[in-house]
Specification:
CATH class of the largest domain: Mainly Beta
Strand content: 15-25%
Order of helices and strands: HHEEEEEEEHHHEHHEEHH
Largest sheet: 4 strands, antiparallel
Shape: globular
CATH topology of the largest domain: Jelly Rolls
Number of helices: 9
Helix content: 40-55%
Strand order of the largest sheet: 2-6-4-5
């Protein structure tokens, strides 16, 4: 395991009580995930759970015509594979690495054994239930945002949410990738991003968007970003910490 990487860079794992974390630690394998790597497709059996640290995942649905839209992003605040502890072994959606980075992988059976362990702590179970609420909030707020807010606001929400999961102010994504995530045409993203760039809020160059003025970008965002961030901080606060 590389010295400069730790499973506790993932907020879910970091929120575990020490005893639960130590039981899971031997089963967590550090991996690097390239951009565009498919984690699972609809109907695929979920053999592993993924806990991103610096990688950013996109969970999305595709139609029969091939159109796709992102329902939620997942980064260091969460995990990929929630169907496992909800009673299912497959998902109807897909998950892909949107931005390359690091993650920790764990066999699904390890989690199931821990949840079913006689006399086991309920802390892990309660944490996972809170994370399900986080994901439900993300999905619901994304649906409301897509219906009621402008493309500029939706782009702003997406950039800020992705930035929260990124290790720096730069996001190695193309405008085409963002357009696919938002379910819009690339030309719309180009126009909206151009306005933010001319305002000095972001800089786009060769497939990388760098946020130059985060405070300014937050002023442009709709309430959807703040609602989700507040819920994530409230539900995934570390033991003994007060969420803002």
């Amino acid at each position: 395991m590389p010295n400069n990487h730790s499973p506790q860079q993932n907020r879910l794992l970091a929120a575990l009580p020490a005893t639960d974390y130590q039981r899971l630690l031997p089963h967590l394998d550090h991996i690097q995930i390239p951009s565009g790597h498919i984690i699972y497709k609809p109907g695929d059996p979920l053999h592993h759970l993924y806990f991103p640290t610096t990688a950013i995942m996109s969970v999305f649905y595709s139609t029969e015509t091939g159109a796709a839209v992102e329902t939620t992003g997942v980064g260091n605040e969460g995990m990929i594979g929630i169907a496992v502890f909800m009673g299912g072994r497959t998902m109807p959606d897909s998950a892909m690495a949107l931005c390359a980075g690091h993650a920790y992988r764990m066999p699904t059976q390890v989690l199931m054994n821990e949840l079913n362990r006689p006399g086991g702590s309920g802390a892990l179970h309660h944490l996972l239930l809170r994370y399900i609420q986080v994901r439900m909030t993300q999905i619901a707020q994304t649906a409301a945002c897509n219906r009621h807010h402008s493309l500029q606001q939706r782009l702003c929400r997406w950039l800020l949410s992705s930035l929260d999961r990124a290790p720096s102010n730069g996001l190695p994504v193309t405008q085409e990738t963002i357009a696919s995530a938002l379910g819009v045409r690339r030309e719309g993203v180009t126009e909206a991003a151009g306005r933010y760039q001319r305002a000095g809020l972001i800089c786009y160059h060769r497939g990388c968007i760098t946020v130059l003025d985060r405070a300014g970008l937050e002023k442009q965002a709709c309430e959807c970003y703040r609602v989700v961030k507040k819920e994530v901080n409230r539900l995934l606060a570390l033991p003994g910490m007060t969420a803002n």
